[in-house]
């Protein structure tokens, strides 16, 4: 499955930083069009007043109904419904297309503007408040990629919602270069993404082993075959038995967790026009719960393959720390490709 390349506007970074907060209610222009999922033919889809299943239901939709999407969030979409703003769960939507595919990022892509290296104990909160739920705790040395920063809070994706880190807890926010073709600092990445995982030692071992085997330089025209290069996911290669997600069901298998690395890499390269996705498969209708719905890329039983179509080498760098998996991609001019 080769992805059709799209052209993203040069001022996209500014747009990212100026996004309205999730509670915004003003209707915007329709950006994507989707249909209510056909996977549940006898089920209706609820339309809510807010991004909460506890909020008021204003309407119900049948499978195949068209949706005019104005904003996309990790677990929800904002829609224009009967002239007003409303919300539908992302898991209830299929066949989404951009109204302006040339100037619009693929559905669900979140461009990350910053990354940081944690220097002291830092919490990830569910809201822009230290009184809100703590989603994750980070310690010195953890690397996290961030969508943007506003009002003293840096924002990232935590599974199927946003998470927030107080900028007062961060030593510095390091920029991600929004234009890989422009003059650059090779110490700064051109894309980044963070996903979070559960505290399961065998699975963490597998995540770390995948990162070790994945980290590399790719020269122009080179392909990364995830199963072939990062795998095989065998005991002999240092992998352990851990839960594996297959068609929405959890089973035990060697290399359990490898899909989170391929999925995090998928979300990273989606931000780059110069990296082409040759093959990608979802984990079934429900997707992987550690990412927004529809943003996973299976490995192991299926495969994930990408190609570097930039005119320069790129370096892929993954790390695991404090239940956070972060992948950063850099320009690597003048560096030879890693041995396979």
Helices, strands, pairings?
Layout: H1 12-17, E1 32-36, E2 45-48, E3 57-61, E4 66-72, E5 76-81, E6 84-89, E7 93-98, E8 114-117, E9 122-125, E10 134-138, E11 143-146, E12 148-150, E13 153-158, E14 161-166, E15 174-175, E16 191-196, H2 201-214, E17 216-218, E18 223-225, H3 226-229, E19 241-246, E20 249-254, H4 258-269, E21 275-279, E22 305-308, E23 314-321, E24 324-331
Describe the 3D structure.
By secondary structure, the protein is mainly β. The protein folds into two domains: 87 residues, SH3 type barrels; 232 residues, no CATH class. Helix content is 11%, strand content 36%. It has four helices and 24 strands. A hairpin with an 8-residue loop joins strand 2 and strand 3. The longest helix is centred in the middle third of the chain and has 14 residues. The protein is globular and about 55 Å long. It starts with 11 loop residues before the first helix and ends in a 9-residue tail after the last strand. About 7% of the residues have low confidence.
